[in-house]
Design goal:
The protein is of the alpha+beta class. Helices cover 28% and strands 36% of the residues. The chain has helices spanning 6-13, 15-19, 51-70, 106-114, and strands at 23-27, 31-36, 77-88, 96-102, 120-129, 134-146.
């Protein structure tokens, strides 16, 4: 039996990510990079990716880094998004890429969980166009809720 990749795990547990046909370019505990292909079905009124599709792309990138960093904790805690904030900076056209970075060291988060806490940690995500221009920035605060 083959162990599923982070992208396969997300696609199977989050149908919206699968629906958007997100491409998983990198999924490590330090960084996750996902791309939303240019798809007319998900365009907005100006011909670029809809804000909702970009939000889902960025939130999915944050979820990938959480799974990569804390997948070994899933037997004792469930990761949950606590809140998310996004700022749209420039017009996005064509394919867009989201790059997520963990905002706290994973070992620090796990130590807080080990001590009986419910750790919260930020994941920052930059959304860029193919030309490298930053079109959006998102911060998602996640928690690891202990199973009780």
């Amino acid at each position: 039996m083959t162990t599923p990749t982070i992208g396969q795990m997300l696609d199977s547990t989050v149908p919206m990510a699968h629906t958007l046909k997100l491409e998983y370019l990198e999924t490590t505990p330090e960084r996750a990079v996902l791309r939303l292909p240019d798809q007319p079905a998900y365009h907005n009124h100006v011909g670029g990716p809809h804000a909702g599709a970009m939000f889902t792309l960025a939130e999915s990138a944050s979820g990938c880094i959480v799974l990569a960093a804390f997948g070994d904790q899933l037997s004792r805690a469930v990761p949950l998004a606590v809140n998310a904030e996004i700022a749209y900076k420039k017009l996005a056209m064509g394919e867009v890429t989201a790059t997520a970075l963990l905002g706290r060291p994973a070992a620090e988060v796990v130590a807080e969980l080990d001590a009986g806490g419910r750790p919260e940690f930020p994941v920052t995500v930059e959304i860029t166009r193919a030309d490298g221009a930053v079109t959006g920035v998102m911060t998602v605060t996640w928690t690891l809720r202990p199973n009780s």
